[in-house]
Amino acid sequence: MVLFAGVIMLVGGILEVFRGIMAIAEDDVFVTTPRYVFRFDLTSWGWIHLVIGVLIALVGFFVIKGAAWARIAGIFLVSLGLIGNFLDLPYYPLWSVVIIALDVFVIWALAVYRED
């Protein structure tokens, strides 16, 4: 289960990096909402997703390698990614919901670790 969580973290982190690059380079892909509480522009959200995506992918690599510290760091970083996607929900709803569901599964898989 942890191996699968690591693979999902690696792939999900890379996809978050692409999403961040997309928001930085071409922010007219996203829906803009004039009355959103968190007043970051889409370029700021792009940088947030880019940094979190790189960190999640890096820690996902170490989860696959079997590092014990990576499980704890993975739970923390994936939780940050989940919160970031929740706050980003008005801009890209379908993608955010899918990533939130995957993040919940990854957190569960890392938290209930047992020796395979």
From TrEMBL:
InterPro entries: DUF7144. Pfam families: DUF7144. The chain crosses the membrane at residues 7-25, 45-64, 69-87, 93-113. Keywords: Membrane, Transmembrane, Transmembrane helix. Residues 1-114 form the DUF7144 domain. This is DUF7144 domain-containing protein. It comes from Kitasatospora phosalacinea.
